[in-house]
Inverse folding.
């Protein structure tokens, strides 16, 4: 077997080693047909079966309520920054979207939405550089709006919503790119949940969109066909050729996740992994966590060291020990350990041990 | 080695076996970094080098003129059915696109464009079910239009443009999904050439767009950010995470193609492959070619047999002999042999031999 590093990259991120091995084994020949999964038609029986089974696994894992639809949409999460306002602003005459500015991607989503109608930022943590999740009370949610938009986990700053806001009849929309399937979540709280697939689900170049059925059909007629959720729904996401490799890989990841005991079991391990790092940081006096304790992400752990010189040495020595891609996002600096579902507890333990030793030598 | 079939599927299609083998070998570990190419950041040095080298290989292979840009765009060819009018209709006050309706995909593109402005179909071969390419004379091209749109190779009906129309100052736009890099083409004839990647270039879920630089910047402000060509140009196609696996596979395919002697050498083999089938069909009295001789595609060879019963037996027996996915598109029926760059001459010979034997037994 290859000598794989522990990959703490924020995305495209590490995939489970067992999944990667299976994909490698059957790369030249999918189910004995003599061709790769990437070389066969999206309208072939073999691919349709795969797509249907991916649906089934996903719906089971997330306990998808009957009145929700699952779409496989082109373009990653950022395409949804456009698709959400295009599809939902027309739900009410106000043509308005509410945004909670809890990080860089929420900010970008709000900017993008301005192309399509009125945008109201109802709360922001920008003034403290997104170190926490703003508080939302029901009176802040204008009931004439088409939707209320949040980023459920902020990859760059390592914060997440622990309790989702109450938005009344206004559908709550969540960008869950960096945490979908990492914790048990009641989908009934949302109108739309979407995720770029390159963090917790598979490779890049695709987004999963979960949408409540009654929210389909509000896109105006000048909507590009492949940005209209109703198109994907009507065609079971096969309007044109989807990213078949990504769907195949997601299928393998969902099979793996089911084998691990599902989302609940995964959440337990994820909590353990995150606690291991946060506890070490909080008791160290050397490392400093970035996010306020009550809003900390269990997927992206952001922290810093006392000074740039130590930080650079930390990143260099970690890299040399097979702890890969720990450098924080350029918007924040410091260290970011992305510990998605695929990161084993063993990898986090290796990082924790490295951190302890590094502190002893340099603290 | 795996027992690979000869895959005549129209797309996602066969990729060169040498490319598939290399991808399989390094699937778990890209260049010794201990992670897969699909598990690393699109902003990492390793990926940026790959992207730059893909650019270089492509530009060399196609002799891309200095004033053209190469973009890697989300969503496959059908997203371009929207992107082309969005980006080019605003080039002139008329907000108008001209379309040549030479097949199903050209027809769909013209329909989609109606969302964004005026569409004028200047010629069509629909009345004879697209068995030829309509003739275009310069006087048919309204010089006030933003662009003139063609499908350079019609995958479903097996026709192609052998000489491209003269459109004066109106930029010619070509959907070359099923033939890019299969024949020597002077890019200077075009304003835009695009191709979904899943036929001659790599796996699905991405499009390459070649655009003359002066055509950037005409998208209206209500354009979804990731449908604006200027966005991709500004960000070197890294606005968000692209389909990194597809780019990696395209890089391998372009390396392979360069090793084969480039587009000119490939065109020679492609002509040989197509001639082998068309000659057999034309001299048989049993098989009937679909496309008119002067407009025949060298990528998709469409033909039929005398009667449904023989057709079904043909497809079944071919499949049993490892000649895969020969069934014609549901819009046409019959047989379609897609013989993209990756299909070796050996595979076409195997098909030709099968056809001869089948005719002897059943003719």
């Amino acid at each position: 077997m290859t000598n794989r590093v522990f990959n703490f990259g924020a995305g495209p991120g590490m995939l489970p080693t067992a999944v990667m091995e299976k994909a490698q084994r059957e790369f030249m020949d999918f189910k004995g047909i003599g061709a790769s999964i990437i070389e066969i038609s999206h309208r072939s029986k073999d691919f349709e079966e795969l797509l249907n089974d991916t649906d089934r696994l996903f719906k089971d894992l997330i306990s998808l309520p009957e009145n929700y639809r699952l779409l496989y949409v082109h373009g990653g999460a950022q395409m949804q920054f456009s698709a959400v306002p295009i599809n939902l602003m027309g739900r009410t005459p106000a043509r308005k979207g509410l945004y909670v500015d809890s990080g860089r991607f929420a900010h970008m989503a709000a900017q993008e939405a301005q192309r399509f109608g009125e945008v109201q930022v109802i709360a922001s943590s920008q003034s403290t550089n997104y170190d926490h999740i703003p508080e939302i009370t029901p009176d802040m949610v204008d009931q004439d709006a088409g939707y209320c938009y949040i980023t459920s986990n902020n990859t760059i700053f390592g914060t997440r919503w622990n309790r989702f806001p109450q938005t009344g009849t206004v559908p709550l929309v969540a960008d869950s790119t960096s945490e979908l399937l990492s914790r048990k979540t009641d989908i009934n709280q949302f109108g739309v949940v979407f995720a770029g697939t390159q963090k917790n689900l598979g490779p890049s170049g695709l987004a999963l969109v979960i949408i409540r059925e009654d929210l389909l059909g509000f896109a105006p007629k000048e909507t590009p066909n492949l940005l209209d959720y109703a198109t994907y729904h009507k065609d079971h996401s096969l309007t044109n050729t989807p990213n078949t490799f990504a769907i195949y890989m997601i299928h393998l990841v969902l099979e793996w996740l089911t084998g691990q005991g599902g989302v609940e079991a995964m959440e337990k391990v994820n909590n353990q992994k995150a606690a291991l790092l946060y506890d070490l940081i909080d008791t160290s006096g050397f490392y400093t966590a970035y996010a306020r304790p009550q809003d900390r992400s269990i997927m992206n752990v952001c922290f810093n060291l006392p000074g740039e010189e130590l930080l650079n040495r930390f990143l260099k020595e970690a890299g040399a020990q097979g702890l890969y891609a720990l450098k924080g996002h350029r918007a924040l600096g410091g260290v970011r350990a992305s510990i998605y579902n695929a990161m084993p507890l063993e990898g986090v333990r290796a990082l924790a041990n490295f951190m302890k030793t590094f502190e002893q030598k340099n603290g």
User: Anything to note?
Assistant: Chain B touches chain A through 68 residues (CB under 8 Å). Chain B has nine helices and 14 strands. The mean pLDDT of chain B is 97.
